[in-house]
Each structure stands twice: as C-alpha cells, then as structure tokens.
Hints:
The protein is α+β, with helices and mostly antiparallel strands and 407 residues long. The chain has two domains: 12-215; 231-383, Alpha-Beta Plaits. The protein has twelve helices and five strands. It has a five-stranded mixed sheet, with helices on both faces. Helix 12 links the parallel strand 4 and strand 5. Helix 10 crosses helix 11 (313-328). The longest helix is centred in the middle third of the chain and has 44 residues, at 177-220. Mean pLDDT is 82; it is low at 386-407.
Amino acid sequence: MARRFAVLLDADDLGPEYRWRLVTTLFAQRRSLTEGNIALAATQLMCLWRTGWPGFAALAVLSVAVTVARLILIRAFDRRSGGAGTHPHTPELWARRCIIGVTATSLCWCATNICVFFGFHDAAMQLFAVMVQAGWLSAANVRNAPSPRAVLIQTGLTALSIAACAGIAGQGIVRLVAPFSLIMMSASLSIADYMRAQSRLVMLTEQQLGAANEQLTRLSATDALTGIGNRRAFDAVLQTEWGRAMRQATDLALLVIDVDHFKRFNDRYGHPAGDVCLRHIAGAMESTLRRPPDFPARFGGEEFVAVLPGTSEDGALGVAERLCLAVRNLNVPHEASSFAFVTISVGVASMAPSPGESCQVLIDLADQALYDAKQNGRNQPRAASARLTLNGWSADGTAVEKKAVLF
C-alpha cells in the first residue's frame, strides 16, 4: 500500500528527468487551482449570504489565503527550476510541498462541510456544497494524479467528510449522498490510478522511442564494416568543427588516409580478407587518435579520414607518423606490395578557417598531400606545401594544379 500511495509516481526506472516532469505537472496548475478555489470561496460566500453566519466569511478568507500561498509556491518552483539535475531540491521534496497545499485546501472543504451540515439545516445548501465538491474533486484528482499521496489525501478528506456529514446531519434526500460519496471516492481513486498508468506508459514509450531514435542515429553515422564514423558522419563533424575553428580562430587539421595497393591485396587474398584488413586499420586509427575531439571515419572503399580539431600541421604530421607506424606494426602480410606488409599513405593539412572559406579547401589540401605521399613512394605521411583558397591559388599567388589521387 505504501508503494501505491507514494509521494510521487514511481518512475525510477525511467530516470530522474521523468520524475522532474511529474513534479512539473503538479505545479503546472495555476489556472485550475485558482478556478477551484474560487469555487470553494464562492460556496462559502453563498452560505454566508443564505445564513448570515460570519464563520463562512472567515472560511472564505482562509481559503483565499491558502490559494495565495499555493500560487506563491508554484511561482517559487517556476523561478528556481532549471531543468532536471539543476533544481536546488529533489523532486520528492517539491511533491511533498504540493501535498501540503492539497491538504490545506481539502481541510478548508472539510471545515465548510461541517459548518454547512451541522450549523444549518438547509437541504438545498447542503446539496449545492456537495455538487460543487464533486466537480472539484474529479478535476483535482486528474490534475494531481502524478502524486498518489495527494490523490488519497484530497479524496479521503473531502469524500469521507461529505459521507460522514451527510449521513449524520443530512436533510431529507441529502442523506443518500453518504453512500454515493463513498462510491465517488472509489471512482476518483480508480480514475487517478488509470491516469497514473497512462502517464507512465506514455513516458516509457517516449523513452523507448528516444532510445530507438538514438540507436538509429548512431547506426546512420557508423560504418557497418569498421565500426567507426561513416562518410555522412565525417561531413557533419567536419562542418561543425570548421565553424567552431572559424569562431575561435584556431587550427583545424585533416588526415586523408589511403591503404597502399589495396586492390592488389584484394586480388591476392580475397575480399573477406580485405574487410578484415580494413577493420584492423580502423582499430589502429582509434588507438592512435587518443583525444576525445579527434574523429576517425571511413571515407569510402579503402580510404579513411580523421578530423583533428585545434591541431597545427606539425602536430597533425606527428599523429600521421604514429598512425603509419601503428598500421605497419599490425604486420598484415601483403606479398603484392614492395613492403611485404600492409601500409598506408597519409595526406596532412591544417589551417585556421577564414570567413567566406569552405571546408572543401581543407579537403583539397589534404587530398593534394596524399597524392604527394603516393608519388614519393607511399608508406609515409606528407603535409600540404601550400594552402588553397576558394579560387585554387596558393599563398604566394601562383595557380595550384589540382591532381587526382592515385589508388
């Protein structure tokens, strides 16, 4: 029973973010709270008008005070709330504060019932008070469904007080309200249970959908063969890092990597062996690129790329040298190569982006450097000797010949 009537709907398996969302639902009732307590005060003032007893005026003032206090609490929650994990208190603590407000309002209704039923023998006024409370209770239970304890308190205090007062001091047909109040209490709790179950189901479905979307996003950005980033992920990362480097005026380096004589490797050992070789090279890249922002990816076929944020050309060249060594240390036999083992050639480029430039400039530089590495014997890194602009000119103003990479 303690679990059913917990201070807050049990959602531990859904994570803290959802518990905060439940509490936010409890405090997102400024309008309904105001309207409900206006109905309470109006009922008390109606009784004052019919009876002239000043006690109803005191109850109306007390009800307004409780309403103002709860509105202040809602404002405090909104003002201090900064999202899950940043709020100064736990969600359960805020739920308890909401329960205190619910209890205070329910006690006001209890006091009103006692005064209406025991202070005056007016069947019409008694029935009017019961009808108003029935409507208020149904709406309040739905609104406070995230907190089982709040629902139990407001239902128990209100419905039981109606049943007791109607059974003892009800006038005429109003006595029949007593058993119906108990039925109303049971129905209200059932509605609240249903709302809690639906809320939990929605949140669970939302979490599962989010996990599935995250998995799909991860799969769409991962190369199926090697397990590192794919071409789509590389394009997105390069564009993001290019913009960041431009804003922060820092260097951005790019490595373009190609497996030497890979077609000969496939012809001699077969494509399954070629796939295994590519996975080994991807593993060597992941072990060599140790910094969190460094991003390795398979560009296509036997060509790989690596984005190195905040890295100068000298630093990127050092990474490329370590990568060449790591691939050689794999000792993957390649009898169709002059080196007898699988090797790679690496083109290295680094630049600080300028406004108006495209990241294609950096790709062209690294691509040209890769061509130079292959032209000079392969199994080595080469750094770009000049920086291209959008118009394809080097730093000294001479035209740069764009050459295709040899595979």
